[in-house]
Amino acid sequence: MLAKRIIPCLDIKDGRTVKGVNFVGLRDAGDPVELGKLYSQQGADELVFLDITATVDKRKTLSDLVKKIAKNINIPFTVGGGIRSVEDANVLLQSGADKISVNSAAVRDPQLINGLAENFGSQFVVVAIDAKLFEGEWKVHLNGGRIPTELNLLDWAKECESRGAGEILFTSMNNDGTKKGFENEMLAKLSNQLSIPIIASGGAGSMEHFYDVFTEGKADAGLAASIFHFKEIEILDLKRYLNKKGIPVRV
Q1: Which of 160, 169, 175, 177 is a good FRET partner for 213, with 20 to 30 A between their CA atoms?
Q2: Alpha-carbon distance 97 to 70, whole Å?
Q3: Which of 45, 88, 130, 212 is catalytic?
Q4: What is the pTM of this model?
């Protein structure tokens, strides 16, 4: 079995790391450069940077900030927010990103996934999907969760894979920031029906939640923000816990 990955996420607004609950009520969580450096030193497997208002503000991701973070870390670095073209992605690649995460722009123009995969390779392309359970169906949302669509989560994830996505980053909007655990039932469905890695996001509140997401949820990676930013859980402690529980992780 491949090692499971622990991934801190930097949600960026106005150049600062922020975190909310169910995508609202944002509060400051620190300097992204310092946090990225700390997580790299603490043994994080990867780092995700999401400029959460780039799409809403109709601007491109903060490439200068990406450069600063990339200089201070030695782990794979995924960057997302406001990427609408191969050219946008190339700027971030040149700035130090190892992977690109697309979300709203890919829904509006699915061919973007094909173009990114063809130009950079599938391993470079992460499709982030924000979805909410409403009346028994998981619906994809855009613009940082602000705009609901009629797209079904599982159908869209399968299309993303067919177009060349190398990974799916699924955030359950129902679980986000609640610290009540990941959406393991839906994660397991995604994992069973797709052949590419699934990154779980939304709901981490304890070490047990990570154990559950790797066993019940069958996720390949667990992503979290506030529990790391506010030092509720240390990454090395989490990995030692998982290792003792028989989950393969890099310690």
Answers
A1: 160
A2: 7
A3: 130
A4: 0.92
